[in-house]
Protein 1
Amino acid sequence: MPCKNLFLICLLIWLGISCKSEKDPEPSAPSAFGLKSVEVNEINSGLAVENVSLNPKIRFTFSTALNSTSIKNGFTFKTGSGETVAFSGTLENGDSSVVVEPVSALNGLNSYMVTATKFLKSVTNGTLQAEIKVSLQTQVDSTDKFPVLSDEALLDLVQKQTFRYFWDFGHPVSGLARERNTSGDVVTSGGSGFGIMTIPVAIERKFITRAQGLERLQKITGFLKDKTQRFHGAFPHWINGATGAVVPFSTKDNGADLVETSFLIQGLLTARQYFNDPGAAETALRNDISKIWEAVEWDWFRKNNENVLYWHWSPEYEWEMNHPIQGWNECLITYVLAASSPTHAIPKSVYDSGWTDHGNFVNGKEYYGIKLPLGEPYGGPLFFAHYSFLGLNPTGLSDGFANYFTQNKNHALINYNYCKTNPLGYNGYSDQCWGLTASDIPDGYTASSPSNDKGIIAPTAALSSFPYTPAESMKALKFFYYKLGDKIWGEYGFHDSFSIDQRWFADSYLAIDQGPIVIMIENYRSGLPWNLFMSSPEVKTGLKKLGFTSPNLN
């Protein structure tokens, strides 16, 4: 019996082991799955996509079929600032692909992020190996932001709105132009000269009355004549608009700025020629302007009688800035006025040796098949073609070096063709979005040009080129206003600058950029500022002295 019991025990043990070994194995965890591809609008463009349409389709393709119930929580769609975007998710390709689409059109020139998260599951309950983030930068919204106007009405609107910078935002005490819209009491002498030149335009366009314009100019000239600090008749770059005291532009630039002074005098002479009524009020205004003009000691800025003019002089640092005015840039007007002065004129030798450096400012090379008579390669920033020529009429103006309308037209066309060609590949540059000149940039300011291209477009560049490139400038104006108007159009016209590539839009206005827009559009439309300035008898004398010829000098 004991042996039989032992046999039964062993049999039971064996059966137990045998049954355990025949059980199913423990179930393994669901396998993870991964991404095979991402396509945005049928193009495999990687995980960072620019210039995306406003109704994009983002197709994620995975290595396995997906659980349809996980789609809702398995994806997120957010703006760059983190706001949720409503979207739909549709399965395709045997449920291994998901097409994500926003329910409503996205906003133009904005950032978005679409994410496939670990809440996404496969049909076997597998988990996504790692989150997949797809960043989207949308293209320009091509819809018109404002009702379409006739070309003439649009030009009227741009001039009127931009003029408000100088009229509504002019300093309440002095009437002068603030440097920028955040400058408080700091006004700018050169920018004020530009602002003064907009007043005859505004009167003729019926934005203001002649009496209003006269009153503003009486305030301005009275402040310049009686309150503003001057140095040998020249004005500082920056002035306190309430007191007239110098506001240093930099440590050593705390005295005279001859170039800014020339921009101011250009504006004052234009106003003097416009307010030509024989009555007492306008006669007194003309006399005040002539006193300010005749007090500038242009010849003294030769620094010990050298054959060149110097830009700066400081009562504390004297000539330490040591910046001769020469080459081809924005300063031709300085030499023209210095030669034209009835009281402190320079001889032609200063122009020849200083400004032209005996002709060394000649270029003569071709860029994009366009010959550039003067200046640096590709022409430099476009304000070279604007600031001196707000009053100086380049039409038919020639000397031994260039026809100055050809110079400025070709400069503008080179700038246009550079942006159209877009050799650095900036998103947004085109034949309707162009113009490189001095302007604000993110966290700074620079003189943009084809040789110093930061991807920043300044509306003043194309718009102030209207006399030279009317078709190209009109195309740019329509793009800026109708397509980008929700981004760059504001209280005083177009904001200073922007970058489609960087999704950056300045909120600033600068006097030296706003003024040329009003003035050069008017020179294109009627020639009024050119006609006024060139009617000054002193200017005619100075230009002839320097060897210029023009039908406007007769």
Note: The longest helix spans residues 2-21.
Protein 2
Amino acid sequence: MEGQALPVTPSTISPRQDPSLANVLPDLGRPQEAQDAAASPADPGTLNLRGAGTSYVQSVHWESILTKIRGLKEDLVTDSKPPPGSHLFYGSNRHATREEILAAVPARPVVDRLLALHFDSYVVTQCSSLTRAQYEAFWENPSGTSIAWIGMMFSMLFIAAQLQTFTIDSINGSADSLRADCLLKKDAFREKAVQCLVLSRYTTGGPYILETLITILTGEFVLLKESATDGWVLISMIMHIAMRMGYHRDPDHFPRISPFEGEMRRRLWTAILQLDLVLSLEMGLPRSATNTHIDTRPPRNLLDSDFDEDTIELPSPRPETEWTPILPLIARARLITALGLICDVNTEIDVPSFDEILKIDALLDDVHKRAVPPLLRWESVAHPITDSPTLVVQRVSVETTYYKARILLYRRALISYQGQKPTEQDKESVRICLESAMKILSFQQMLHEESQPLGRLCQLRWKITHIFNQDVLLATSILCLYLQDVDKFEESPETAKAQAPWSSNRADEIRQRLTISHKIWLQMSTASAEAGKVAKALSIVLGNIEACAEDSSASYDFLADLDAMPLTEFGFNSQYLPSGFYSPLSFFDNVLETRGT
């Protein structure tokens, strides 16, 4: 080895210089500035020092956007009580023996019912490697079953018990005792899942460990919307365990991995990448995964019935005109190519050039038009009445992810808009942000109407309420910021008429759309404390706007609504919100903190 030149290690390559993207984005990589170079004009972000902990968010995070809206921090007082946090980190985590864990398994009819609910929900079922043969084998010989597999089953029961509480809320709001029972079961199932992880020494990896961890994370941070900080730390740990187990390398490299196991590994790794990106965007921090060390191919469009543990060779994927539970996972994985680059440029110190933004936008548009399966593209189908409610919701989810990505890419111009002599680039960026935000709020209105009793999506009301609305909150913050300083953004009437037809009166349209959105949040607040928080913040923003137009006949007494909802009832906390396909209802949580200053 003496005298040999040292090779360049992969760690010296920037994620933005990924060779696989060179033909699409050849100019994205930039050399590192010299240490004595002039300081970057970019905002370095926000560092909050509080008694509850220290937190950092990037300059284009929603928190930074909302702190620019006057009146929120002054008019709202937040609860300093911290969120519960992950049970893996802060639970009692009493060690349990195998015998104690098996004694806690409910009777089979109860487990059958709960697992059926879990799989019907399509929340995390694409990651599950639980098979009918394994399930039957467990009931035949529980003591001979892997403790990690039992932990995976308990994590699914945890999700199902939480879903039951949502169903009870939507069917009979007075069924308090039944709901309390479901909550107790949920906590017990989660405790047992964590005890199984500890007993199996989960940090060393092994079968069913990752499935269990992802299911717990989904239950805590997607459905329950607990501390997003813990979710970001947990997904990082999950990714490191997965890489320790080789999930970042395609299974075809390793002949000992069966076709069934290899395909399940691809599904699981794709889900991990998506959660990593979503939680990183939520926290306003860099993602853990980069393209320099990953070659795992995406999963195939297959039904679970198309292959099993005895399959010698995987069948050809089904055409993407045919829906499977895996198809949305595949579609979002393709969007990650562009969304990941957006996350990278938003967390870089240097401000990206407008040419770079245009190149990423072109890639995003190309993926949206050509790589997303037509079955999941909103504009490419006629939405017949034969479409299932699940397909409609998945279609909306993919579509709003696209519009959210455009906001994340262009919103820097909206935040730093000078207003005196804006460039054409600034004007175009603002237009894209506003149009995308309006599209998202139009989806909110449609979903809300269709999820009412007797509506087409009534049976999925829990999913719309607890999962989908994340993107709505990003759109809301952008539109509120625009309305606050509408005079700065509005063009002269002569110029406006020469632009798109809607731009001349876009401020009025935005007010109307936000007023509709406010009424939706207000209606949802009867069953959701977090919806009440959003309604309260919108009351203040719209109330300030209406105060400047006393002759408006469409206005109503926002302050009366505000006074009718005591602040202590809503339990404000300091959790951050994901900017991915997750939990929008906690949108104003962190930005409404007093910050102790």
Note: The mean pLDDT is 74.
